[in-house]
Amino acid sequence: MNALHPGLAGHAIYRPLGMGYFWLMYHLFGLNALGFHACAFVIHAINSMMVAFLANGILRHRLLALTAGLLYASSFRIHFEPLLWMVGIFDLGGMFCFLSALLFYIRGKILPSVLVFLAGLFIKEHLIVLPAVIGLYSHFERRQSLKDAAKQIMPYAAAVLFVYLPAKMLGLHGVHVRADNPYALSIGKHVLQNLETLIGLGLIGLCPSLWLKISMSLTCIVGIIQSIRYKQRLNLRSTTTMLVLWAIIAASPVCLLKNHVMEGYYFTYSYPALIMLALVVATRFRVHKSAMLVVVSTLVIANIAGSTAMFAEQDGLGVTAASVDDYLIPRAHFQQMLTGYIDSHRARVKQNVRVIVVSNNDRFLYCSLDEQLQTLTHDATVSGVVVPAMQHDTNGYSVMSPTPEDPRRLACERLDKDQTLHLQIIGDAIQERPL
Which residue in 144, 150, 56, 46 sits closest to 99, CA to CA? Predict the structure, then answer.
């Protein structure tokens, strides 16, 4: 795997350090999943401790800080997928860099903060929201003017403009994203819909059961009524305002994804703000420490129980070592070979070309290659399929391929010789076979 140059031309994401993590883990643990999971849990534990440190600096209350760390650590609805799947390092590692850079900034160490921020961008591009969060912290917590707060963002903006964007353009041979790409950004009604979904997922992370949701909702309503009753008006420079804006801004990049299904882990970068915001609301009631410990313990236990149930459900899906060896690894190897060939022979894949890959692997037969080829070539007219053989008769060339109406049904497809690219898998390579 070439971690620094993935070769995914036309892809919207560029995460070389995340890919480098896969390379490192594979060389350390091979295909032993225990090593991957152990490292993921260590990173998650460190992230949870950093959330506690961050909460202590913002809320200035050790018990609330400990509560924030525990709630962050145990919120399975937010962290379940990153901890379960190998690709979760993009969110775990990204959050590690996000929190580290923010803590470095709070302690006045600007250069380490910028460097960690830059590293985080090469793990997951979602860290682009960090400068905005730093600006909010400077304005609301340090009481700096908007002009001074904007100055604090300048080193991070320079890192994006002069390091990250040039590296991404070079690594991806330019960024060309089609409107139907899952990572295409757009503005429309889906932005508010996605934000509503993410906030709902965040609240589920805090309250994993119905009665807890009802209890928290009633608590918030009573808190608002008390605030009105005692004329406790919201200070525009308050911690509460900062946390609300943090939660919204940190979720905004994924809200622009029109072709994406919102998942709990997309709320990762907003989640610390939501937790601290809930704790700020709770402090208005002047709850006794023992009562707060009972509530927090209940939430943590409920989250852990929910996590156990979800893991048991996923474990029952039957992803075994045999399926990994027989399908997942060969499939990944095949995709890597196809990507390498297209990258090296881009001129051969012209407009309206039908790519026919002949393979004797039963697992891949009649598999559509349309999405992968169109992503690699930036051309929506390119299509492809994997077949066991190509037929030739007096009428020309043909293959048996899935029908567009029903992919499970095969039909004879006549090929245009001039618009067909015939590839064959030979050993560990894909080679072209002239028609």
Answer: 46
Residue 344 CB partners (closer than 8 Å, separation 6+): none
| CA dihedral over 416, 419, 422, 423, signed as positive or negative | negative
Instruction: Please report, for residues 44, 148, 189, the alpha-carbon distance to residue 241 in angstroms, rounded to integers and kept in the order given.
Output: 27, 19, 25
Contact 250, 129 (CB under 8 A): yes
Non-local (6+) Cβ contacts of 119 within 8 A are 17, 97
Residues 239-261 as b or e (16 or more Cβ within 10 Å = b): beebbbbbbebbbbbbbbbbebe
pTM summary value: 0.72
User: Distances in Å between the alpha carbon of 21 and those of 4, 13, 116, 209?
Assistant: 11, 16, 16, 35
Task: Note down pLDDT in tens along the chain; length 435 residues.
Answer: 444 444 443 456 788 998 899 889 888 988 788 888 899 999 999 999 999 999 999 888 888 888 889 889 888 778 888 888 888 899 999 999 999 999 999 999 999 999 999 999 999 999 999 999 999 999 988 889 989 999 999 999 999 999 998 888 887 655 566 666 667 777 888 888 888 887 777 777 666 654 454 555 555 545 544 444 444 444 434 788 899 899 999 988 888 887 777 777 888 999 999 888 888 877 766 656 666 666 667 666 766 666 666 666 655 555 555 555 556 667 777 777 888 788 777 777 888 888 888 887 777 777 778 877 877 777 778 888 888 888 888 888 888 888 777 777 888 888 888 888 888 877 777 888 877
Within 13 Å of residue 195, how many CA atoms lie on the same side as its CB?
15
Q: Count Cα neighbours of 271 within 13 Å in the Cβ-side half-sphere.
A: 35
CA atoms within 13 A on the CB side of 405: 3
Could you tell me whether strands 429-432 and 420-426 are parallel, antiparallel, or unpaired per DSSP bridges? antiparallel
Q: What torsion, rounded to 10 degrees, do the Cα atoms 34, 6, 269, 69 define?
A: 20
Q: How buried is residue 316: exposed, middle or buried, by Cβ count under 10 Å (0-12/13-18/19+)?
A: exposed
- Residue 285 has phi, psi (to 5 degrees) of -90, -5
